[in-house]
Amino acid sequence: AARRAVAVQSARSGGEASKASVPLVTVEALRKEFRLGPDRVLKAVQDVSFSIPRGQTFSIVGESGSGKSTTARMISRLETASAGRVLFDGVDITALSGEPLRRLRRRFQLVYQNPYSSLDPRMSIEDILCEPLRAFRLGSRAEQKAQAATLLDQVALPRDYLQRKPGALSGGQRQRIAIARALALKPDLLVLDEPVSALDVSVQDQILRLLGELQRDAGLTYLMISHDLAVVRQISHRVGVMQGGVMVEQGSRDEVFDHPRHAYTRELLAAIP
Ligand code: ADP
Ligand code: MG
Q: Nucleotide-binding as a keyword (predicted)?
């Protein structure tokens, strides 16, 4: 048995080594134009490129309207790109449709700013957590319920919350449920669009710590969207700064925060209290 364990171990590390060389997400010259009128085109995202290594967090920071959410929505295939490519695990997903797109959707999940609007107030927490499993016909009803209880453990909420409804939870607890639901299908990537912006600073801190623990435990990769530099500083490996649809600077967290190269980044940093 010991020998087999060693064989499994080396096969696994070999696989991981070859996979680790390909970033989980690569974005190449992504562009989005919105036609606002017969002769008015808004360049919401202009030739944005970056990549996210497996198990890491890439954050996009910038003020409201700078194109952060549009970029996230194109990567998540909720919005069609005007130009450019998105590679997921080395595969071009820009033009996927049908069954391959449906399969891909299991591999990334979104968490938004306002969990209340995305959690059906009539459903119990248990049903909310079982729903993704039901949609993909994964497991029996009993297995789905057991999985819902495990998901609740993962986000550190007591199991008796299973019978509650979203209205009986605080904002931070609702965001924990939204994260638990996002984890139900065991995705590789979480796209977190302003996930803590609606929460008090002390609750923000708890959710960011939870996200950090989940990343370490499950090897999750995050694309984090935030207008808040303090949040980004806490959670990121790499950071991209967007201004008016352009990613004006990107680098490791310490590069961007300690040695900003672009005047706009310095301006943002100077505004932190
Ligand atoms: P952010 O998330 O950084 O606040 P967004 O990506 O939501 O910015 O928006 C970038 C720009 O694109 C904004 O000027 C916004 O008004 C515009 N925009 C976003 N979605 C649409 C849309 N569906 N139609 C027209 N304009 C849009
Ligand atoms: Mg946004």
A: yes
In this structure, which residue's CA is closest to atom 17 in ligand 1?
44
Segment 107-155, tens digit of pLDDT? 999 998 876 667 899 999 999 999 999 998 999 999 999 999 999 999 9
Sequence length of the chain is 273
The CA distance from 158 to 240, in Å, is 37
Average pLDDT estimate for 194-200? 91
**Can you give the pLDDT at residue 32?**
98
pLDDT at residue number 103: 87
State the ipTM, two decimals.
0.99
The tally of CA atoms less than 13 A away on the side-chain side of residue 105 is 14
Residue 207 Cα to ligand 1 midpoint, Å, equals 26
Residue ranges of the alpha helices (H) in the chain?
A: 2-20, 68-75, 98-105, 115-118, 125-135, 141-154, 171-183, 201-218, 229-235, 253-258, 263-270
Ligand nearest, relative to CA of residue 45: 1
CA distance 155 to 178: 10
Q: Which ligand is nearest to the CA of 32?
A: 1
Which helix H or strand E contains 113, and what residues bound it? Answer: none
**Contact by Cβ (8 Å): 61, 69:** no
Distance 253 CA to ligand 2 centre (A): 21
Write down the pTM of the prediction. Answer: 0.90
What is the C-alpha separation between 12 and 10, in angstroms, rounded? 5
